Amino acid sequence: MVDQKLRARRLTRVGGPVAAGLAVLLALSACGGSIGGGSDGGDGGSGDPGPLKIGMLAPITGPAAPEGIALQRGFDLAIEHINDDGGVFGQPVEVVFIDDQADPATATQAAQRLVQQEEVDYIFGTITDDTTIAAATVADQAGVPMSQAIATALDYCSPHFWPFGETPTQLLTDLVPRMVEEFGGNVALVGNDYVFPRTYHEVSTQLIEEAGGTVVAEEYSPLGTSDWQPIITRLQGAEPDWILSAVVGGDAVSFVQQADQFGLLEGRGLTGVSVDQQFYPALAPQLEGRSQVVRYTDQLDSELNATFVEAYREAYDTQEPIPGVAGNAYDGMRFIAEAFEQAGSTDAEAVSEQIAEMEFEGLGGPVGFDPDNHVVQAPMYLTSIEAGSPYAVVEELGVVTDEQEKDCA
């Protein structure tokens, strides 16, 4: 089994941003023993498998770059640690990276390249649900397993698709009633105009109504919006008690800054994915004092997380809050590596069987999957965004159930 204690050591920077669309093959050096229990492996009875090859998609340019860069960083650090612990099947894991620019057409072409030309064993990524669906469709047709690692509202289902991202139900079940109780029942919803924000707000609307509240405004704008004043004016006119925002990427920074500038935030609550950790460096004055529910925060009190935080800060020369998607990507890639090691094979059926049955010790506690609907099962945390200790844990919420009625198996 994987040694769950990361070694506290000096790290060099890995996986820095690359040019748009550039694929980089990384065969990171290995040392030490196997990541797993010393299995000799096997590839469907055809002998020992070759090196595990992962295709990684992330938008490190374009409107979702803040999340994409965080995803890549957590993933790259996982690969370095996996290879330092002996790799998979006793060999270094290889990575082919492509920037999908948060564009579904680019993601489709990238996934086709990964499965047809690069012949990867697994695809990891990406950020927006639209690009994830595009890549997952290609992967499914090719029989290649895939995972993503950011909050997701995907209704997509496949025997070999394993999303590590939190669902809207997991993010909002505890958060919404707390906000209604603290600020009031009149709620304004805002988001970018694509799958995740709209599904996020479908869930939030139901939870708001169950808590005795009312949605007084609901607004959407395309990714890449720079002028939010018209939407902010309409939100102000609805006189909400608080705002639930599913504005993402660089748009989140623009929206929150302009909402503050035009007085929308004065005396009102604000929460949602727009207050996530990756936005704190640009929005600290607007976010401090607010609450958020997350699966990962660098304030988690565990030896495993403390060592990860030290390694991340040294690798990327940052003292800012570590984004949740970076923690999810780190856990997710290590989980996948262990699944391949336990399967002893790169066969998709064998690997997915292991993923469905595994429980893995992640940075915030045990991580696993519902074997039927493939919803990730991991503890959630209520956090407080405070100066000096942003995203400090206020309460452990445990595993939040999301009983989606779909049979992915």
From TrEMBL:
Question: What InterPro entries is this protein classified in?
Answer: BCAA_transport, Leu-bd, Leu_Ile_Val-bd, Peripla_BP_I
Q: Which organism is it from?
A: Blastococcus saxobsidens
One GO BP annotation of this record: amino acid transport
| Protein name as annotated | ABC transporter substrate-binding protein
Keywords recorded for this protein, A-Z: Amino-acid transport, Signal, Transport
Q: Where is the Leucine-binding protein domain?
A: 51-388
Q: Which family does it belong to?
A: Belongs to the leucine-binding protein family.
Please give one Pfam family short name. Answer: Peripla_BP_6
Tell me the SUPFAM superfamilies matching this sequence: Periplasmic binding protein-like I
CDD domains linked: PBP1_AmiC-like
